[in-house]
Write a structure and sequence with these properties.
By secondary structure, this protein is mainly beta. The chain is built from 2 helices and 10 strands. The protein has helices at residues 41-47, 111-117, and strands at 7-18, 22-29, 34-40, 54-59, 65-67, 78-89, 93-100, 103-110, 124-129, 135-138. A 5-stranded antiparallel sheet has the order 3-2-1-4-10. A hairpin with a 2-residue loop joins strand 7 (93-100) and strand 8 (103-110). The chain is elongated, with a radius of gyration of 15 Å.
């Protein structure tokens, strides 16, 4: 199956914590970085997820926020450090490609935000991704 989602990071499930309807799934990426996904319990069952399962974490570019450094006191579980590889700025939006230890991520942010943050190739950033915006696919 082909997908329009460009942000795809491979990893292995390390833990699944299930609730009544939702579950949190901890994924260790190839680099060792931990990522958290919040998915339905039905998805966990349908995908057969458990410790040791190989998965791909999928995130739409519109769900990736950027910061110029780590952010404390924030409920966003996933903070992935990286370096800006490219900034393509239009009149309203910017596409920012970020090299991370496990490949690359693309963030779609406003052109104003890219300018305010001073983003350019070589800038150090942290990609912020809410766990509810991470989808999982079995590898």
């Amino acid at each position: 199956m082909s997908l329009s989602i460009r942000n795809q990071l491979s990893g292995t499930v390390t833990a699944v914590t299930t609730g009544e309807v939702m579950a949190t799934v901890k994924v260790r990426l190839t680099s060792g970085q931990e990522l958290t996904a919040a998915v339905t319990v039905d998805a966990v069952k349908d995908l057969g997820l458990g410790a040791g399962s190989a998965v791909r974490a999928l995130v739409k570019s519109t769900e990736v926020s950027l910061a110029t450094g780590p952010v404390a006191g924030l409920s966003i579980r996933n903070q992935i450090p990286g370096t800006v590889a490219e900034v393509a700025t239009g009149s309203a939006m910017a596409g920012v490609k970020v090299d991370v230890a496990d490949g690359s991520l693309t963030a779609a942010i406003t052109a104003d935000a890219a300018a305010d943050l001073g983003l350019a190739a070589g800038s150090t950033v942290v990609a912020l991704i809410k766990s509810t915006e991470v989808s999982l696919a079995t590898a």
